[in-house]
């Protein structure tokens, strides 16, 4: 740390030429509206809970649909009470770039028609989630369904950034694979984290055990999602995080793109939008294809794909879409089991074959196991170890899982670190361009700066869940406390440049009700990677997820408002 | 009345050669199991409520999803407690024809897998209804959805009967059109009913008014559904009723056929069933096409199709599927309004043009207006009259509506009556073959017989709703009472031969739970008819609806158990 980045465009922090202004910390390529900083409650969140986020948030795979504060009266309504606030915010905080989609120009009757059509479309086309207010909705399919929350219109997104995000996906895939093979790097980088984070510590233990027994994974499957925000200040597309386990919404994200295309087909003319500018979204097909090819590489037609699930999963339909594609397009069967069930019914044969209830498992696809709450007892850890030891293809393996941790993200952002894993200089430059400023807390200079300007930083605990991020004055308070205590607790956090995305007025639809509010968006780009020994079988970008969230509360990360599924409109 | 039918195969009742045995009343063509009478709680129901039918039932277009008596615990289960009862019933009552699908042979684990798959399939493919236990589920799309109740497997149905039901559909279409043009016949036939049935009386008043003003309908659109049961005793496919208004389930019925085909594609081999034996079901496409062609005949590209709906509609997705097909395949827009809203916002221009909120309506498609409860005030009646007076195409017109009443069904079953409307003798013979015994209560011979053997008859009030039918000893009690009173109340009823359909063990899935029980089924065949003056544009059979219902209660019509959507498996 402490070495300045070479590129003036990179979100680096020079330790020698520091003066505490936002522009020097994160130099802008464009200064159309210098000094205007959009408030963000959304940046630096690991996961956007698609709901009332006052509940504890989980990573990627699940989200909350508990009752929102809105009182739900008889029918859906479009409360436009936020309208004045929107104007006010525009004046107070400024919007660096006028959105292409001017929702103020759309009349209320048309909005209501579109909302009705969108709700019907969602219901008929399986854009649904389990409704937390209905018993059994997280356990039994077909019971207690509600449309997934969605944005009525796609969010404008510059085509150049979209292309960049697509281009880097295969490079990130490759990077993760290379990093996963460097056991010593993973162990060393995570050694301090291990001491203060019990959950990561258990994962590292599994990793150590695999190193000890010299476990190799010939067939390696990665289904990743790299999340970005477009920073208004630096005009850079900055990576929030790279998910290597349980990347959620490959199923529903495609449907939202279809929904928006369908709406624009009928209403596009009225609002001046062209459905062809919503990029095609093939995440569910591509993920299914990757799982199917991994299954093919394993080479036992009778073997099953095991989907590791949480005991209660309100986002099950997203998962079911993927399994349906696997079944219908590739004739590959899946079986859904919790970690506890796997502990109970799983076994390994002497040759490494994983059996579950006597049936051979070729591929283990994790949609659980990423959070401490997924391991309430030793049974779940036993199941994880059992699968890791087996010869089944793990998506992800423990190495892939660790390679996606925040600490590793921060380590990879260090100067010259990418060069350790990648050869192609252009590739390296592209990745680096996407890196936000990332620092460990053993860097005293950056601590000093963060205490002076806490509004420009986010403290992110290694522990998953955007709700745990620390913003604003709390950054200062916590940093001072950690300095005083002098404990190792600082290793549990990284510091990240705070990103200030564009705020746009948006129609957000949830529980049949449309709300107009200011919102910010986060782009996730899916990547699939499959190799068997030296043969790379798949390495591609495969679709995207846009999530949009009300940006009405100033602090507290994702603690206020709710996020909805969205798509992008290229401009 | 009182004249015996010519064909020995017809379900006639000879007044001269009467002896009170079932076989003589309704002669069998086959006597494989003479003397075995399957109990039926299903026959003679106007509508099969897909739910707990202790609630008041409505006709065709809606059904109840209120809480079933089953206690819903954590997860879906397959209670096989009925198994012993099933065996017992086989012994007590006999089953005339062994079903092709032997569900006893399917192991429990396989059933659970199929149930899971079916629930997921339903959720992803829009085979859903509003869940009555969730607020707003009947008003706002996308909120409070639950899978539509379905039978896990299709019901075996002899191909010859299926073909007959398809063949007669266009003949019934033609018949209804002819009858609708004979205003005097309708008025005369319904004159006694008018005196005792307030609802039918209001419909007849509208009809009279249209006759007075010499209102003619050049473009006539019928979207009918003729419902049948296969009588085990006579081996005849007997018509229960012909729905000319608000024929429900054109949307969901197609999906159930798809669901069953999908299940058989994956599990068919294990249970010895071939998915290709489920006939294609195109009801939603054909109905949409008929509506679109009527819209085309009306010839105003800017005009809308008005869907008349109930204020609360838990079967809205069935309707939305039809409207989606109209929009996506034919680019025809629909607008949904209640009768009260139409009264408020509707008007007729001097040239007869129907406007709703200033927008021209080309076709009025009724999914409400068939039951007295649809007209809680004069406003609704005003709306009905307004639409009838307009030049919009009505589906159905008041004449089509009346032509589908039970009284007219009974009148048409009288000897030589079909000859009044149709010329082709073969066509007439085919229709007559499907007529169950139907009598008015002014026939003293049949009253005598029904008092002696009430188990062989059903008393059906003109009033809609299967829950109002009278069975068993109640037939005797009511007939004796009516005889004593000597009032005109007898005109409110018709008597119908009781049909005894085959009872088969069936898996019924509702609210995520699979129940095994004995069930009976009713086949509905959709027909579409469109003409413009002398030009017949459409006259065809277009898909089917199978409904299956537990047959566990001996009496009380549809008062016990619940019905589910089903499809047919030809053998």
TrEMBL record, chains A, B:
* Cofactor note as given: Binds 1 Mg(2+) ion per subunit.
What residues does substrate bind to? 225, 245-248, 313-315, 319, 367-370, 547, 558-559
Which pathway does this chain act in? Sulfur metabolism; glutathione biosynthesis; glutathione from L-cysteine and L-glutamate: step 2/2
Do the record's keywords include Transport? no
Q: Which Pfam families match?
A: GSH_synth_ATP, GSH_synthase
Residue sites binding ATP per the record: 241, 406, 460-469, 471, 496-499, 522, 549, 555
Cellular localisation:
Plastid, Chloroplast
Record's Gene3D superfamilies?
3.30.1490.50, 3.30.1490.80, ATP-grasp fold, B domain (3.30.470.20), Glutathione synthase, substrate-binding domain superfamily, eukaryotic (3.40.50.1760), Glutathione Synthetase, Chain A, domain 3 (1.10.1080.10)
Keyword check for Ribonucleoprotein: no
Q: Which GO terms fall under molecular function for this chain's record?
A: ATP binding; glutathione binding; glutathione synthase activity; magnesium ion binding
Family recorded in the similarity comment: Belongs to the eukaryotic GSH synthase family.
Q: PANTHER family, from UniProt? A: GLUTATHIONE SYNTHETASE (PTHR11130)
Subunit structure, interactors included: Homodimer.
The name on file for this protein is Glutathione synthetase
Lineage, broadest ranks: Eukaryota, Viridiplantae, Streptophyta, Embryophyta, Tracheophyta
């Amino acid at each position: 740390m402490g070495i300045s980045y070479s590129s003036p465009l990179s979100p680096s922090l020079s330790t020698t030429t520091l003066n505490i202004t936002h522009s020097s910390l994160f130099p802008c390529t464009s200064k159309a509206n210098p000094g205007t900083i959009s408030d963000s409650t959304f940046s630096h969140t690991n996961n956007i809970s698609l709901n009332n986020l006052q509940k504890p948030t989980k990573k990627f795979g699940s989200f909350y649909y508990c009752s929102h504060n809105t009182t739900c009266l008889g029918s859906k309504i479009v409360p436009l009470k936020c309208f004045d606030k929107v104007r006010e915010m525009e004046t107070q905080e400024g919007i660096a770039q006028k959105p292409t989609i001017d929702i103020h120009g759309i009349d209320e009757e048309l909005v209501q028609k579109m909302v009705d059509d969108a709700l019907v479309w969602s219901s008929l086309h399986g854009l649904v989630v389990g409704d937390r207010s209905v018993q059994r909705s997280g356990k039994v399919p077909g019971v207690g369904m509600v449309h997934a929350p969605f944005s009525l219109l796609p969010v404008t997104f510059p085509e150049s950034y979209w292309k960049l995000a697509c281009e880097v996906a295969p490079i990130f895939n490759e990077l993760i694979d290379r990093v996963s093979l460097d056991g010593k790097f993973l162990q060393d980088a995570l050694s301090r984290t291990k001491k203060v984070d019990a959950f990561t510590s258990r994962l590292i233990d599994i990793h150590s055990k695999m190193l000890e027994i010299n476990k190799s994974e010939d067939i390696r499957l990665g289904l990743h999602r790299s999340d970005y925000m477009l920073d208004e200040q630096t005009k850079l597309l900055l990576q929030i995080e790279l998910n290597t386990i349980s990347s959620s919404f490959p199923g529903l994200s495609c449907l939202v793109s279809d929904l928006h295309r369908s709406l624009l087909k009928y209403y596009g003319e009225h609002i001046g939008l062209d459905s062809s500018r919503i990029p095609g979204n093939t995440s569910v097909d591509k993920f299914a294809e990757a799982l199917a090819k991994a299954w093919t590489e394993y080479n036992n037609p009778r073997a099953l794909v095991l989907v590791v699930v949480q005991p209660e999963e309100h986002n099950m339909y997203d998962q079911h879409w993927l399994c349906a594609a696997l079944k219908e397009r590739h004739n590959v069967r899946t079986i859904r089991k919790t970690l506890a069930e796997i502990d109970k019914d799983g076994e390994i044969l002497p040759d490494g074959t994983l059996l579950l209830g006597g049936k051979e498992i070729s591929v283990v696809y994790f949609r659980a196991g990423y959070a401490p709450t997924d391991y309430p007892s030793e049974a779940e850890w036993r199941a994880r170890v059992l699968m890791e030891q087996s010869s089944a293809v793990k998506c992800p393996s423990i190495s892939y899982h660790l390679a996606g941790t925040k600490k590793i993200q921060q380590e990879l952002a260090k100067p010259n670190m990418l060069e350790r894993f990648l050869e192609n200089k252009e590739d390296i430059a592209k990745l680096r361009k996407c890196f936000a400023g990332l620092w460990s807390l053993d860097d005293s200079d950056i601590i000093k700066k963060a205490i002076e300007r806490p509004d420009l930083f986010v403290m992110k605990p290694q522990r998953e869940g955007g709700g745990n991020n620390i913003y604003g004055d709390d950054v200062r308070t916590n940093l001072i406390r950690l300095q005083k205590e002098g404990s190792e607790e600082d290793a549990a956090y990284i510091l990240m440049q705070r990103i200030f995305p564009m705020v746009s007025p948006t129609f957000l639809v949830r529980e049949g009700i449309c709300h107009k509010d200011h919102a910010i968006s986060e782009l996730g780009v899916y990547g699939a990677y499959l190799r068997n020994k030296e043969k790379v079988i798949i390495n591609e970008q495969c679709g995207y997820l846009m999530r949009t969230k009300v940006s009405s509360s100033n602090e507290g990360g994702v603690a206020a408002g709710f996020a909805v599924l969205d798509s992008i409109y290229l401009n």
